[in-house]
Amino acid sequence: MPIGKLLIANRGEIAVRINRAARDLGIPTVQVHSAADREMLAVKLAGESVEIGPPLAAKSYLNIDRIIEAGRSTGADAVHPGYGFLAENAAFAEAVADAGMTFVGPDAATIRTMGDKALARRQAELAGVATVPGSDGVVGDISEAGKLASEIGFPVMIKAAAGGGGRGIRVARSGDEFPTLASQASTEALAAFGDGGIYIEKVIENARHVEVQILGDGTDSIHCWERECSIQRRRQKLWEEAPSTAIDEATRDRLCRSAVDLAVSVGYSGAGTVEYLFDDSSNSFYFIEMNTRIQVEHPVTEMVTGLDLVAEMIRIAGGSSLRHRQDDVRRNGHAIEVRLNAEDPLNGFMPCPGTVTDIASAGGLGVRFDHMLYRDYVVPPFYDSLLGKLIVHGETREAALTRLARSLEETRIEGVATTLPLFQLLLNDCDIRSNAVHTGWLEDWLGAQSNEVRKQGDTIA
Amino acid sequence: MSHEIKSPIPGTFYRKPSPDDPPYKEVGDKVAKGDMVGLVEVMKTFHEIKADADGTIASFETENEEPVIAGQTLIVLA
Protein backbone atom coordinates (compact mmCIF):
# COMPACT_ATOMS: atom_id res chain seq x y z
CA MET A 1 0.00 0.00 0.00
CA PRO A 2 1.45 3.42 -0.90
CA ILE A 3 2.73 5.37 2.09
CA GLY A 4 0.27 7.95 3.48
CA LYS A 5 2.49 9.80 5.96
CA LEU A 6 6.23 9.42 6.49
CA LEU A 7 8.06 9.85 9.78
CA ILE A 8 11.70 10.91 9.38
CA ALA A 9 13.82 9.36 12.13
CA ASN A 10 16.99 11.35 11.55
CA ARG A 11 18.36 14.89 11.54
CA GLY A 12 20.62 17.28 9.61
CA GLU A 13 21.02 17.31 5.86
CA ILE A 14 19.65 13.81 5.27
CA ALA A 15 16.40 14.68 7.07
CA VAL A 16 16.05 17.64 4.70
CA ARG A 17 16.78 15.37 1.74
CA ILE A 18 14.19 12.76 2.79
CA ASN A 19 11.58 15.43 3.49
CA ARG A 20 12.00 16.85 -0.01
CA ALA A 21 11.78 13.42 -1.66
CA ALA A 22 8.60 12.58 0.28
CA ARG A 23 7.00 15.93 -0.49
CA ASP A 24 7.85 15.52 -4.17
CA LEU A 25 5.86 12.27 -4.05
CA GLY A 26 2.96 14.11 -2.40
CA ILE A 27 3.54 12.38 0.95
CA PRO A 28 3.16 14.49 4.13
CA THR A 29 6.00 14.24 6.66
CA VAL A 30 6.58 14.07 10.41
CA GLN A 31 10.00 15.13 11.66
CA VAL A 32 11.23 13.87 15.03
CA HIS A 33 13.93 15.86 16.79
CA SER A 34 15.86 16.23 20.05
CA ALA A 35 15.60 19.24 22.38
CA ALA A 36 18.80 20.56 20.76
CA ASP A 37 17.31 20.42 17.25
CA ARG A 38 14.07 22.45 17.61
CA GLU A 39 15.38 25.02 15.13
CA MET A 40 16.83 22.63 12.57
CA LEU A 41 15.91 23.11 8.90
CA ALA A 42 14.17 19.72 8.59
CA VAL A 43 11.77 20.66 11.42
CA LYS A 44 10.89 23.88 9.61
CA LEU A 45 10.25 22.03 6.34
CA ALA A 46 8.18 19.16 7.77
CA GLY A 47 4.41 19.23 8.08
CA GLU A 48 4.56 18.15 11.72
CA SER A 49 7.31 17.68 14.28
CA VAL A 50 7.63 15.75 17.53
CA GLU A 51 10.30 16.26 20.21
CA ILE A 52 11.59 12.85 21.30
CA GLY A 53 14.11 13.58 24.05
CA PRO A 54 17.18 15.45 25.28
CA PRO A 55 20.23 16.36 23.15
CA LEU A 56 22.04 13.07 23.90
CA ALA A 57 21.42 10.84 20.85
CA ALA A 58 21.12 7.73 23.04
CA LYS A 59 18.02 9.30 24.59
CA SER A 60 16.50 10.80 21.44
CA TYR A 61 17.55 9.68 17.93
CA LEU A 62 18.43 6.21 19.25
CA ASN A 63 15.34 5.95 21.47
CA ILE A 64 13.22 3.37 19.66
CA ASP A 65 10.20 3.63 21.99
CA ARG A 66 9.95 7.41 21.65
CA ILE A 67 10.20 7.26 17.86
CA ILE A 68 7.52 4.55 17.59
CA GLU A 69 5.31 6.58 19.93
CA ALA A 70 5.80 9.68 17.75
CA GLY A 71 4.69 7.63 14.74
CA ARG A 72 1.57 6.41 16.56
CA SER A 73 0.57 9.82 17.88
CA THR A 74 0.85 11.48 14.47
CA GLY A 75 -0.68 8.67 12.42
CA ALA A 76 2.47 8.07 10.36
CA ASP A 77 2.38 4.73 8.51
CA ALA A 78 6.05 4.56 7.53
CA VAL A 79 9.46 5.43 8.97
CA HIS A 80 12.57 6.50 7.04
CA PRO A 81 15.73 5.95 9.12
CA GLY A 82 18.19 7.93 6.94
CA TYR A 83 21.83 6.96 7.62
CA GLY A 84 23.62 6.46 10.94
CA PHE A 85 21.56 6.34 14.16
CA LEU A 86 19.05 3.46 13.78
CA ALA A 87 19.38 3.00 10.00
CA GLU A 88 21.06 -0.41 10.28
CA ASN A 89 19.50 -1.53 13.55
CA ALA A 90 17.50 -4.73 12.98
CA ALA A 91 15.63 -4.34 16.29
CA PHE A 92 14.39 -0.93 15.14
CA ALA A 93 13.19 -2.31 11.79
CA GLU A 94 11.33 -5.00 13.75
CA ALA A 95 9.83 -2.51 16.22
CA VAL A 96 8.56 -0.37 13.33
CA ALA A 97 6.95 -3.43 11.69
CA ASP A 98 5.49 -4.62 15.01
CA ALA A 99 3.87 -1.20 15.47
CA GLY A 100 2.11 -1.69 12.12
CA MET A 101 4.27 0.79 10.23
CA THR A 102 6.48 0.29 7.17
CA PHE A 103 10.25 0.52 7.55
CA VAL A 104 11.81 2.24 4.52
CA GLY A 105 14.60 -0.27 3.96
CA PRO A 106 15.17 -4.01 3.86
CA ASP A 107 13.67 -6.39 6.44
CA ALA A 108 15.28 -7.04 9.82
CA ALA A 109 16.73 -10.40 8.72
CA THR A 110 18.63 -8.80 5.81
CA ILE A 111 19.93 -6.01 8.05
CA ARG A 112 21.10 -8.63 10.54
CA THR A 113 22.89 -10.79 7.96
CA MET A 114 24.64 -7.89 6.27
CA GLY A 115 25.50 -6.22 9.59
CA ASP A 116 27.48 -9.26 10.75
CA LYS A 117 30.94 -9.25 9.14
CA ALA A 118 31.31 -13.05 9.04
CA LEU A 119 27.74 -13.71 7.83
CA ALA A 120 28.02 -10.99 5.18
CA ARG A 121 31.31 -12.46 3.95
CA ARG A 122 29.75 -15.92 3.75
CA GLN A 123 26.73 -14.52 1.89
CA ALA A 124 29.06 -12.81 -0.59
CA GLU A 125 30.95 -16.06 -1.16
CA LEU A 126 27.67 -17.93 -1.67
CA ALA A 127 26.69 -15.35 -4.27
CA GLY A 128 30.05 -15.81 -6.01
CA VAL A 129 31.39 -12.37 -5.05
CA ALA A 130 35.14 -12.18 -4.41
CA THR A 131 36.09 -11.39 -0.80
CA VAL A 132 39.46 -10.32 0.59
CA PRO A 133 41.52 -13.57 0.69
CA GLY A 134 41.93 -14.70 4.27
CA SER A 135 41.66 -17.48 6.81
CA ASP A 136 37.85 -17.49 6.85
CA GLY A 137 37.66 -17.53 10.63
CA VAL A 138 40.07 -18.22 13.47
CA VAL A 139 43.29 -20.04 12.57
CA GLY A 140 44.27 -23.14 14.55
CA ASP A 141 47.94 -22.60 15.37
CA ILE A 142 50.70 -20.31 14.23
CA SER A 143 52.54 -22.70 11.91
CA GLU A 144 49.28 -23.53 10.13
CA ALA A 145 48.57 -19.79 9.91
CA GLY A 146 52.04 -19.22 8.47
CA LYS A 147 51.42 -21.78 5.71
CA LEU A 148 48.10 -20.13 4.84
CA ALA A 149 49.75 -16.68 4.83
CA SER A 150 52.31 -17.88 2.27
CA GLU A 151 49.51 -19.24 0.09
CA ILE A 152 47.58 -15.95 0.27
CA GLY A 153 50.73 -13.91 -0.35
CA PHE A 154 52.40 -11.28 1.83
CA PRO A 155 51.77 -8.74 3.22
CA VAL A 156 49.00 -10.13 5.42
CA MET A 157 47.14 -8.56 8.28
CA ILE A 158 46.93 -10.51 11.54
CA LYS A 159 43.79 -9.55 13.46
CA ALA A 160 42.30 -10.48 16.82
CA ALA A 161 39.09 -12.47 16.34
CA ALA A 162 37.60 -10.81 19.42
CA GLY A 163 39.13 -7.49 18.41
CA GLY A 164 38.15 -3.94 17.80
CA GLY A 165 39.69 -0.52 17.94
CA GLY A 166 42.82 -1.63 16.13
CA ARG A 167 44.18 -3.60 19.09
CA GLY A 168 45.93 -6.85 18.29
CA ILE A 169 46.48 -5.96 14.62
CA ARG A 170 49.87 -6.68 12.99
CA VAL A 171 51.02 -6.52 9.39
CA ALA A 172 53.48 -9.25 8.39
CA ARG A 173 55.49 -8.47 5.25
CA SER A 174 57.29 -11.83 4.97
CA GLY A 175 57.19 -15.43 6.14
CA ASP A 176 60.26 -14.75 8.30
CA GLU A 177 58.59 -12.22 10.54
CA PHE A 178 55.18 -13.90 10.52
CA PRO A 179 55.57 -16.27 13.53
CA THR A 180 56.84 -13.53 15.87
CA LEU A 181 54.15 -11.03 14.86
CA ALA A 182 51.39 -13.66 15.00
CA SER A 183 52.32 -14.69 18.52
CA GLN A 184 52.53 -11.01 19.61
CA ALA A 185 49.07 -10.38 18.15
CA SER A 186 47.69 -13.45 19.90
CA THR A 187 49.21 -12.47 23.27
CA GLU A 188 47.92 -8.91 22.97
CA ALA A 189 44.46 -10.18 22.02
CA LEU A 190 44.43 -12.53 25.00
CA ALA A 191 45.36 -9.68 27.36
CA ALA A 192 42.89 -7.22 25.87
CA PHE A 193 39.91 -9.45 25.13
CA GLY A 194 40.52 -12.67 27.09
CA ASP A 195 40.65 -14.52 23.75
CA GLY A 196 43.90 -15.13 21.85
CA GLY A 197 42.17 -16.27 18.64
CA ILE A 198 43.55 -14.64 15.50
CA TYR A 199 42.64 -14.62 11.83
CA ILE A 200 44.57 -13.44 8.82
CA GLU A 201 43.62 -11.37 5.80
CA LYS A 202 45.52 -10.25 2.72
CA VAL A 203 46.58 -6.60 2.75
CA ILE A 204 45.46 -4.93 -0.47
CA GLU A 205 48.03 -2.17 -0.69
CA ASN A 206 47.12 1.22 -2.09
CA ALA A 207 43.56 0.02 -2.71
CA ARG A 208 40.78 2.26 -3.88
CA HIS A 209 37.34 2.28 -2.28
CA VAL A 210 34.66 1.61 -4.87
CA GLU A 211 31.02 0.84 -4.20
CA VAL A 212 27.96 -0.09 -6.22
CA GLN A 213 24.52 1.45 -5.71
CA ILE A 214 21.72 -1.11 -5.65
CA LEU A 215 17.93 -0.84 -5.82
CA GLY A 216 15.87 -3.95 -5.06
CA ASP A 217 12.17 -4.64 -4.68
CA GLY A 218 12.45 -7.93 -2.77
CA THR A 219 12.50 -10.01 -5.96
CA ASP A 220 14.61 -8.20 -8.53
CA SER A 221 17.59 -5.94 -8.10
CA ILE A 222 19.32 -3.48 -10.41
CA HIS A 223 22.54 -1.53 -10.02
CA CYS A 224 22.92 2.19 -10.57
CA TRP A 225 26.64 1.94 -11.34
CA GLU A 226 29.60 2.61 -9.10
CA ARG A 227 31.05 5.41 -7.03
CA GLU A 228 34.66 5.90 -6.04
CA CYS A 229 35.32 7.21 -2.51
CA SER A 230 39.07 6.81 -2.00
CA ILE A 231 39.60 10.26 -0.49
CA GLN A 232 39.16 9.53 3.20
CA ARG A 233 40.47 10.73 6.54
CA ARG A 234 40.24 8.34 9.48
CA ARG A 235 37.94 6.11 7.41
CA GLN A 236 35.56 9.03 6.85
CA LYS A 237 34.90 9.77 3.19
CA LEU A 238 35.39 13.41 2.23
CA TRP A 239 35.22 13.41 -1.58
CA GLU A 240 33.22 11.01 -3.78
CA GLU A 241 32.81 10.57 -7.52
CA ALA A 242 30.75 8.70 -10.07
CA PRO A 243 31.92 6.96 -12.14
CA SER A 244 35.37 5.73 -11.07
CA THR A 245 37.93 6.61 -13.74
CA ALA A 246 40.15 3.77 -12.47
CA ILE A 247 37.86 1.04 -13.81
CA ASP A 248 37.59 -0.13 -17.41
CA GLU A 249 34.22 -1.04 -18.93
CA ALA A 250 34.68 -4.81 -18.69
CA THR A 251 35.67 -4.61 -15.01
CA ARG A 252 32.84 -2.17 -14.33
CA ASP A 253 30.42 -4.65 -15.80
CA ARG A 254 31.72 -7.52 -13.61
CA LEU A 255 31.77 -5.29 -10.50
CA CYS A 256 28.21 -4.06 -10.91
CA ARG A 257 26.89 -7.54 -11.77
CA SER A 258 28.49 -8.98 -8.64
CA ALA A 259 26.66 -6.41 -6.50
CA VAL A 260 23.37 -7.34 -8.17
CA ASP A 261 24.09 -11.05 -7.57
CA LEU A 262 24.62 -10.39 -3.86
CA ALA A 263 21.47 -8.25 -3.59
CA VAL A 264 19.37 -10.87 -5.40
CA SER A 265 20.77 -13.64 -3.17
CA VAL A 266 19.24 -11.98 -0.09
CA GLY A 267 16.03 -10.81 -1.81
CA TYR A 268 17.10 -7.23 -1.22
CA SER A 269 14.46 -4.53 -0.86
CA GLY A 270 15.19 -0.80 -0.96
CA ALA A 271 18.38 1.14 -1.64
CA GLY A 272 21.70 -0.40 -0.64
CA THR A 273 25.39 -0.17 -1.35
CA VAL A 274 27.90 -2.95 -1.84
CA GLU A 275 31.39 -1.78 -0.91
CA TYR A 276 34.65 -3.11 -2.35
CA LEU A 277 38.37 -2.57 -2.28
CA PHE A 278 39.77 -2.18 -5.78
CA ASP A 279 43.36 -3.13 -6.61
CA ASP A 280 44.67 -1.25 -9.67
CA SER A 281 47.70 -3.51 -10.06
CA SER A 282 45.65 -6.69 -10.57
CA ASN A 283 42.43 -5.04 -11.77
CA SER A 284 40.63 -6.99 -9.01
CA PHE A 285 37.88 -6.05 -6.59
CA TYR A 286 37.10 -7.55 -3.20
CA PHE A 287 33.84 -7.32 -1.25
CA ILE A 288 34.16 -5.52 2.12
CA GLU A 289 30.58 -4.96 3.30
CA MET A 290 27.06 -4.05 2.29
CA ASN A 291 25.32 -1.01 3.73
CA THR A 292 21.58 -1.59 3.95
CA ARG A 293 20.55 2.08 3.79
CA ILE A 294 20.86 5.26 1.77
CA GLN A 295 24.40 6.66 1.88
CA VAL A 296 25.71 10.18 2.36
CA GLU A 297 27.25 10.17 -1.12
CA HIS A 298 24.14 8.95 -3.00
CA PRO A 299 23.78 12.29 -4.90
CA VAL A 300 26.73 11.60 -7.22
CA THR A 301 24.84 8.55 -8.48
CA GLU A 302 21.68 10.65 -8.87
CA MET A 303 23.60 13.26 -10.86
CA VAL A 304 24.92 10.74 -13.41
CA THR A 305 21.75 8.58 -13.68
CA GLY A 306 18.99 11.16 -13.19
CA LEU A 307 17.28 8.87 -10.64
CA ASP A 308 15.88 10.08 -7.31
CA LEU A 309 17.17 7.25 -5.10
CA VAL A 310 15.40 8.42 -1.95
CA ALA A 311 12.08 8.67 -3.79
CA GLU A 312 12.65 5.20 -5.28
CA MET A 313 13.25 3.67 -1.85
CA ILE A 314 10.07 5.31 -0.53
CA ARG A 315 8.08 3.94 -3.50
CA ILE A 316 9.52 0.45 -2.99
CA ALA A 317 8.65 0.55 0.72
CA GLY A 318 5.13 1.50 -0.35
CA GLY A 319 4.86 -1.75 -2.33
CA SER A 320 5.98 -0.62 -5.78
CA SER A 321 8.07 -2.91 -7.99
CA LEU A 322 11.26 -1.58 -9.53
CA ARG A 323 10.23 1.05 -12.07
CA HIS A 324 13.42 0.78 -14.12
CA ARG A 325 14.93 -2.09 -16.03
CA GLN A 326 18.69 -2.45 -15.86
CA ASP A 327 19.09 -1.18 -19.43
CA ASP A 328 17.16 1.98 -18.54
CA VAL A 329 19.74 3.05 -15.96
CA ARG A 330 22.16 5.05 -18.09
CA ARG A 331 25.24 6.93 -17.04
CA ASN A 332 25.77 10.45 -18.24
CA GLY A 333 28.90 12.52 -17.57
CA HIS A 334 30.78 12.74 -14.29
CA ALA A 335 29.77 13.89 -10.79
CA ILE A 336 31.86 14.87 -7.76
CA GLU A 337 30.68 15.48 -4.19
CA VAL A 338 32.66 17.14 -1.40
CA ARG A 339 31.56 17.05 2.22
CA LEU A 340 31.37 20.36 4.05
CA ASN A 341 31.98 19.42 7.68
CA ALA A 342 32.09 21.83 10.63
CA GLU A 343 35.76 21.04 11.15
CA ASP A 344 38.76 23.30 10.80
CA PRO A 345 41.23 21.72 8.35
CA LEU A 346 43.76 24.45 9.25
CA ASN A 347 43.68 23.29 12.88
CA GLY A 348 43.85 19.50 12.88
CA PHE A 349 40.19 19.13 11.81
CA MET A 350 39.01 20.49 15.17
CA PRO A 351 35.19 20.29 15.41
CA CYS A 352 33.63 23.71 15.05
CA PRO A 353 30.02 24.01 16.22
CA GLY A 354 28.52 27.51 16.51
CA THR A 355 26.39 30.11 14.76
CA VAL A 356 26.27 30.42 10.99
CA THR A 357 26.38 34.18 10.62
CA ASP A 358 26.07 34.21 6.83
CA ILE A 359 25.73 31.76 3.98
CA ALA A 360 25.99 32.04 0.20
CA SER A 361 25.20 29.03 -1.99
CA ALA A 362 26.79 28.13 -5.28
CA GLY A 363 24.33 27.76 -8.14
CA GLY A 364 23.92 27.32 -11.85
CA LEU A 365 23.78 24.37 -14.20
CA GLY A 366 25.22 21.14 -12.84
CA VAL A 367 25.52 22.37 -9.24
CA ARG A 368 23.62 20.97 -6.27
CA PHE A 369 24.06 21.95 -2.62
CA ASP A 370 22.36 19.56 -0.17
CA HIS A 371 22.66 21.09 3.29
CA MET A 372 21.03 21.90 6.63
CA LEU A 373 22.04 25.56 6.95
CA TYR A 374 20.40 28.97 7.06
CA ARG A 375 21.59 32.31 8.34
CA ASP A 376 21.75 32.47 12.19
CA TYR A 377 21.35 28.69 12.51
CA VAL A 378 23.28 27.41 15.53
CA VAL A 379 25.14 24.19 14.69
CA PRO A 380 24.85 22.09 17.87
CA PRO A 381 27.95 20.29 19.24
CA PHE A 382 26.15 17.01 19.95
CA TYR A 383 26.08 15.30 16.57
CA ASP A 384 28.03 14.53 13.42
CA SER A 385 29.91 17.47 11.89
CA LEU A 386 28.43 17.11 8.37
CA LEU A 387 26.75 20.40 7.41
CA GLY A 388 26.14 19.71 3.77
CA LYS A 389 27.44 18.39 0.48
CA LEU A 390 28.39 20.32 -2.61
CA ILE A 391 27.78 18.19 -5.70
CA VAL A 392 28.73 19.09 -9.26
CA HIS A 393 28.12 17.42 -12.58
CA GLY A 394 29.96 17.89 -15.87
CA GLU A 395 30.21 16.19 -19.25
CA THR A 396 33.66 14.93 -18.29
CA ARG A 397 35.65 14.62 -15.06
CA GLU A 398 37.73 17.59 -16.17
CA ALA A 399 34.58 19.70 -16.62
CA ALA A 400 33.30 18.57 -13.21
CA LEU A 401 36.60 19.57 -11.56
CA THR A 402 36.44 23.02 -13.17
CA ARG A 403 32.84 23.41 -12.05
CA LEU A 404 33.77 22.29 -8.54
CA ALA A 405 36.45 25.01 -8.36
CA ARG A 406 33.92 27.63 -9.47
CA SER A 407 31.26 26.36 -7.03
CA LEU A 408 33.64 26.32 -4.07
CA GLU A 409 34.53 29.93 -4.88
CA GLU A 410 30.83 30.89 -4.84
CA THR A 411 30.08 29.03 -1.58
CA ARG A 412 30.54 30.99 1.63
CA ILE A 413 29.74 29.76 5.13
CA GLU A 414 30.57 32.35 7.80
CA GLY A 415 30.75 31.90 11.57
CA VAL A 416 31.92 28.29 11.65
CA ALA A 417 35.07 26.81 10.15
CA THR A 418 34.41 24.19 7.48
CA THR A 419 36.36 21.76 5.31
CA LEU A 420 35.79 23.99 2.25
CA PRO A 421 39.38 25.35 2.05
CA LEU A 422 40.72 21.77 2.06
CA PHE A 423 38.95 21.05 -1.22
CA GLN A 424 40.31 24.23 -2.82
CA LEU A 425 43.84 23.04 -2.04
CA LEU A 426 43.10 19.48 -3.19
CA LEU A 427 41.84 20.77 -6.55
CA ASN A 428 45.35 22.01 -7.32
CA ASP A 429 46.96 18.66 -6.60
CA CYS A 430 48.12 16.65 -9.61
CA ASP A 431 47.22 13.28 -8.02
CA ILE A 432 43.66 14.52 -7.50
CA ARG A 433 43.50 15.91 -11.04
CA SER A 434 44.58 12.55 -12.46
CA ASN A 435 42.72 10.47 -9.81
CA ALA A 436 45.97 8.72 -8.84
CA VAL A 437 44.73 8.05 -5.31
CA HIS A 438 44.02 5.29 -2.78
CA THR A 439 42.33 5.12 0.62
CA GLY A 440 45.50 6.18 2.44
CA TRP A 441 46.30 8.98 0.00
CA LEU A 442 44.67 11.90 1.85
CA GLU A 443 46.31 11.10 5.19
CA ASP A 444 49.71 10.88 3.45
CA TRP A 445 49.00 14.20 1.74
CA LEU A 446 47.94 15.87 5.01
CA GLY A 447 51.08 14.53 6.67
CA ALA A 448 53.25 15.97 3.89
CA GLN A 449 51.40 19.30 4.10
CA SER A 450 51.93 19.56 7.85
CA ASN A 451 55.67 18.88 7.42
CA GLU A 452 55.69 21.66 4.87
CA VAL A 453 53.98 23.93 7.43
CA ARG A 454 56.67 23.23 9.99
CA LYS A 455 59.16 24.50 7.43
CA GLN A 456 57.16 27.48 6.19
CA GLY A 457 54.80 28.50 8.94
CA ASP A 458 51.30 28.63 7.52
CA THR A 459 49.07 26.43 5.38
CA ILE A 460 47.18 23.30 6.25
CA ALA A 461 47.76 21.16 9.34
CA MET B 1 40.07 28.27 48.31
CA SER B 2 37.89 26.44 45.84
CA HIS B 3 38.84 25.89 42.23
CA GLU B 4 36.54 25.24 39.26
CA ILE B 5 37.38 22.85 36.43
CA LYS B 6 35.65 24.18 33.31
CA SER B 7 34.94 22.73 29.90
CA PRO B 8 36.96 24.50 27.20
CA ILE B 9 34.46 23.40 24.54
CA PRO B 10 30.72 22.82 24.07
CA GLY B 11 29.45 19.25 23.91
CA THR B 12 28.38 16.37 26.13
CA PHE B 13 30.11 15.72 29.48
CA TYR B 14 30.97 12.16 30.50
CA ARG B 15 32.28 11.14 33.91
CA LYS B 16 33.33 7.66 32.67
CA PRO B 17 35.62 6.41 29.89
CA SER B 18 32.73 4.25 28.59
CA PRO B 19 29.17 3.48 29.73
CA ASP B 20 30.24 0.20 31.40
CA ASP B 21 33.22 1.64 33.26
CA PRO B 22 33.20 3.25 36.73
CA PRO B 23 33.52 7.07 36.89
CA TYR B 24 37.01 8.56 36.74
CA LYS B 25 36.43 10.30 40.08
CA GLU B 26 33.86 10.60 42.85
CA VAL B 27 33.11 13.41 45.33
CA GLY B 28 35.78 13.32 48.07
CA ASP B 29 38.53 11.92 45.78
CA LYS B 30 41.86 13.69 45.82
CA VAL B 31 43.12 14.79 42.42
CA ALA B 32 46.50 16.03 41.25
CA LYS B 33 47.02 18.47 38.40
CA GLY B 34 46.90 16.46 35.13
CA ASP B 35 44.60 13.68 36.43
CA MET B 36 41.80 12.62 34.07
CA VAL B 37 38.45 13.69 35.50
CA GLY B 38 36.11 13.37 32.51
CA LEU B 39 35.50 13.63 28.76
CA VAL B 40 33.64 16.16 26.64
CA GLU B 41 32.34 14.88 23.32
CA VAL B 42 32.02 17.45 20.59
CA MET B 43 30.77 16.20 17.21
CA LYS B 44 31.86 12.62 17.91
CA THR B 45 35.35 13.72 18.97
CA PHE B 46 36.33 13.11 22.59
CA HIS B 47 38.36 15.68 24.51
CA GLU B 48 40.02 14.68 27.76
CA ILE B 49 39.23 16.88 30.73
CA LYS B 50 42.15 16.95 33.17
CA ALA B 51 42.39 18.58 36.57
CA ASP B 52 44.15 21.92 36.16
CA ALA B 53 44.97 22.15 39.89
CA ASP B 54 45.52 19.88 42.89
CA GLY B 55 42.65 19.40 45.33
CA THR B 56 39.74 17.30 46.54
CA ILE B 57 36.53 16.99 44.54
CA ALA B 58 33.86 18.97 46.41
CA SER B 59 31.07 18.63 43.80
CA PHE B 60 30.14 17.83 40.23
CA GLU B 61 28.35 20.85 38.78
CA THR B 62 27.52 18.97 35.57
CA GLU B 63 26.05 15.46 35.58
CA ASN B 64 27.16 12.54 33.44
CA GLU B 65 25.81 12.74 29.84
CA GLU B 66 24.59 16.33 30.30
CA PRO B 67 25.14 18.99 27.59
CA VAL B 68 27.71 21.68 28.36
CA ILE B 69 28.61 25.04 26.85
CA ALA B 70 32.17 26.34 26.53
CA GLY B 71 33.34 27.77 29.84
CA GLN B 72 30.76 25.88 31.91
CA THR B 73 31.91 24.62 35.31
CA LEU B 74 32.12 20.83 35.44
CA ILE B 75 33.75 20.16 38.81
CA VAL B 76 34.52 22.17 41.95
CA LEU B 77 37.71 21.33 43.85
CA ALA B 78 38.12 22.20 47.53
Notable features of this structure?
heterodimer, A: Dna Ligase, domain 1, D-amino Acid Aminotransferase, Chain A, domain 1, 3 domains, eight-stranded antiparallel beta sheet, five-stranded parallel beta sheet, 34% helix, globular, B: mainly beta, four-stranded antiparallel beta sheet
How is this structure best summarized?
The complex is a heterodimer of chains A (461) and B (78). Chain A is α+β, with helices and mostly antiparallel strands. Chain A has 15 helices and 22 strands.
At CATH level 3, the topology of the largest domain in chain A is D-amino Acid Aminotransferase, Chain A, domain 1
- The stretches of 5 or more residues of chain A where confidence is low (pLDDT under 50) are none
What is the straight-line distance between the termini of chain B?
6 Å
Task: Report the total helices of chain B.
Answer: 0
Would you write up a description of this structure?
The complex is a heterodimer of chains A (461) and B (78). In chain A, helix 1 links the parallel strand 1 (6-8) and strand 2 (29-33). The mean pLDDT of chain A is 94. Chain A is built from 15 helices and 22 strands. In chain A, 48% of the residues are buried. In chain A, helix 4 packs antiparallel against helix 5 (108-115) and helix 7 crosses helix 8 (178-193). By secondary structure, chain A is of the alpha+beta class. An 8-stranded antiparallel beta sheet of chain A has the order 13-12-9-10-11-14-21-19, with helices on both faces. Chain A has a 5-stranded parallel beta sheet with strand order 3-2-1-4-5, with helices on both faces. Chain A has helices at residues 12-24, 41-45, 64-74, 90-98, 108-115, 117-126, 142-152, 178-193, 249-265, 298-305, 309-317, 397-410, 420-426, 430-434, 441-456, and strands at 6-8, 29-33, 48-51, 78-80, 102-103, 156-160, 170-172, 198-202, 208-217, 221-233, 236-242, 269-279, 284-291, 334-341, 343-344, 350-351, 354-355, 358-360, 367-371, 378-379, 386-394, 412-414. The mean pLDDT of chain B is 95. Chain B has one domain: Beta Barrel (OB fold (Dihydrolipoamide Acetyltransferase, E2P)), CATH 2.40.50.100. In chain B, the strands form 2 sheets. A 4-stranded antiparallel beta sheet of chain B has the order 1-8-6-3, with no helix packed on it. Chain B is mainly β. The termini of chain B are close together. At the A-B interface, loops of A face loops of B.
